[in-house]
Amino acid sequence: LQRMLSMAVEVDKSPTCSSCKIADVIFPFILNIPLRSQREAFLNTMDSQLLRCKLLELLFQHSCDVPTTLPLSLAKILYFLSHSSVLLQYQAETATWQKWDEMLQYLSLLLLSYQNVVLAFLLAEHLRSSLSDRMDLIIQKAKPKLQDDDDISPLDIRLKIEDFISRMKQVLGQPVPLEIMDKLCMLR
């Protein structure tokens, strides 16, 4: 299934567009997966970094009270850290901190996937271009443009993480568990 999804993304004239279309179809099914282990298995085994990014972006947009119109970028990932909640409808009965732990796990996965797409883009692999256009872009040595929203400072990161920690203390009514602090360190 994952290989077929990856090929479906690649055969379109615009891989970005096809990943959006496929993610829109798959997303409701992701919401209905009852176990964290099943959701993680599905997301972790995705071949297409673009499709994984889009699915995770949809998941976080769904969990935000106020969705953002920012394009997928480091700034948007920080926005998700500050504004996401745990709204997976069919999450198995687990402790509240474990639901937040899962959210941070997916945020880290989104960051890694996004970095892979950007890195491939910077290496002139042009994942966002069709297969037929990639060769021309590579031959022309076309340089990709980074987004302005990818220019974030260490201060931005620190403030968003501090905001998240204070929100966690308020939600949990106790100190933030070590597992969540570890995930935040990894995300940082």
UniProtKB/TrEMBL annotation:
InterPro entries: ElonginBC-PRC2_ViralRestrict. Signal peptide: none annotated. GO terms for molecular function: SUMO polymer binding. It comes from the Eukaryota. This is SIMC1 protein. It comes from Pterocles burchelli.
